[in-house]
Amino acid sequence: MENAIVPRSFRLRVLPLLLGALLIAPLPGFAQDAAPNEVRLMDKGPDGTNKVFVPAIMRIEVGGDVNFVAWDFGHDLTSVDGLAPAGAAPFKGYKNADTNVVFEKEGVYVVQCAAHKEIGMVGIVVAGDPSVNLDDIIANYPTNAALSEGARARLGVLLETLKSE
User: Fold this and answer.
1) What domains can be seen in the chain, in order of their start residue?
2) Distance between CA atoms of residues 46 and 15, nearest Å
3) According to its UniProt record, where is this protein located (predicted)?
4) N or C: which end of the chain has fewer CB within 10 A?
């Protein structure tokens, strides 16, 4: 079928349909379901809460990674000093950039968006068994200087959820 000629009527009727189908087909970057081990940094969560990590609590295996996706403009990522397993390396991502973090130590890690810390944009990653340091985090987060009052309030709810599971 070398040098086949496509009739004009075909081009006028079928090609616009094909192009239209491509335009309305869902693009991979806009899929609604999060990929495994993906946490989205969003302006508004599914429940209407402003400035959130979705999911707010991510569970992984020790040594696993999490891809933090700057889903909406203006978000960044940072670990919270003093609210991670002993010996865990601190990490920080750039504003408006996706950040992949490997969690080598077992336990609970608290993360926040530095740009929205005053609003209380916090989340939790649990690598393996949370009991390794959950009680320490519960005891220390109320006085942690890196957290705003809004972050303490949200984190308290998340920690209660984690403790009750």
Assistant:
1) 37-164 (2.60.40.420)
2) 38
3) Periplasm
4) N
